[in-house]
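Narrative of accomplishments. A recurring question from our advisory board has been how the design workflow behaves on a single, concrete structure rather than in aggregate. To address it, we present the structure tokens for one chain from the evaluation set, followed by the sequence designed for it. No filtering or post-editing was applied between the two.
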């Protein structure tokens, strides 16, 4: 029998009772715990796959939190890993049931691709969200009118109804910044995304005012990387790094592409991107100076 390790069952109970991040995070936690059990038991992925009538690839996806898991499969894996304590087994089975419970964003499935759904769940559970944007104001800081312009630009063939649904989803995402236990958002914006006028002068002026107002929140930090900074390590494209308080959730780097996204959680990858964002934050204007830059840009726009 594999004895329950101190500090393992209690975190499971916390996730079951307070599932921040919804099914996305529960899948990651469950997969991480099952991987640890498998390694302690000395079971290969191939043998684990056989036990649930699957493949080693299925076990890999399960342990990475990429897919949900049936209660029957979890029960079979626990038996294979020689976990017989009923209380401990029930914790795992309850967690498995939670992975199939839809998050609030499920009602936007008609406009929400699966690769982006993962990000929303991770945002909900994050303690710190660090982001660098080169083309657009970050979605968590956009006004409704600016978001409308961005969605139209990125989905030129979409109907008006679909565009509005995408905007509603984006606005709903932003509520996490003012929710209890809100994450800290640390955003570095290339000056280019502030100079690019989307939606017209009035829309952009309102967006800049909103951005300046958001910096008043204690959990929101905005820095601007001005043109005169020249080249920098993050010039290749946008970066988002999500950090978590829970030990079962590794730091994750999110790299968005046109029709997909990459999620990196290997320590070397994460450390590389953390070093890049640290360097960029050191080079960019300070939060105070960035606010002054915003206010200057707003003044010029309002003056015509």
């Amino acid at each position: 029998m594999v004895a329950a390790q101190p500090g393992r069952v209690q975190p499971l109970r916390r996730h079951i009772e307070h599932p921040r991040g919804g099914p996305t995070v529960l899948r990651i936690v469950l997969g991480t715990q099952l991987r640890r059990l498998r390694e302690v038991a000395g079971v290969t992925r191939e043998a684990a796959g056989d036990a649930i009538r699957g493949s080693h690839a299925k076990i890999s996806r399960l342990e990475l939190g990429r897919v949900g898991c049936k209660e029957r499969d979890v029960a079979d894996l626990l038996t294979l890993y020689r976990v017989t304590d009923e209380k401990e087994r029930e914790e795992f089975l309850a967690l498995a049931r939670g992975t199939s419970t839809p998050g609030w964003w499920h009602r936007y499935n008609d406009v929400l691709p699966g690769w982006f759904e993962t990000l929303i769940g991770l945002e909900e559970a994050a303690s710190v969200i660090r982001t660098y944007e080169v083309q657009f104001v970050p979605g968590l800081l956009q006004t409704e009118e600016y978001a409308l312009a961005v969605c139209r630009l990125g989905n030129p063939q979409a109907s008006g109804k679909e565009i509005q649904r995408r905007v509603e989803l984006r606005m709903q995402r932003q509520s996490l910044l003012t929710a209890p236990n809100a994450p800290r958002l640390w955003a570095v914006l290339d000056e280019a995304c502030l100079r690019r006028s989307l939606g017209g002068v009035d829309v952009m002026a309102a967006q800049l005012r909103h951005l300046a107002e958001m910096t008043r929140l204690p959990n929101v930090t905005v820095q601007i990387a001005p043109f005169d900074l020249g080249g920098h390590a993050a010039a290749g494209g946008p970066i988002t790094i999500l950090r978590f308080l829970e030990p079962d959730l590794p730091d994750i780097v999110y790299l968005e592409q046109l029709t997909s996204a990459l999620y990196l959680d290997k320590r070397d990858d994460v450390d590389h991107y953390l070093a890049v964002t640290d360097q960029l934050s050191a080079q960019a204007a300070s939060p105070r100076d960035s606010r002054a830059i915003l206010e200057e840009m707003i003044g010029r726009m309002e003056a015509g």
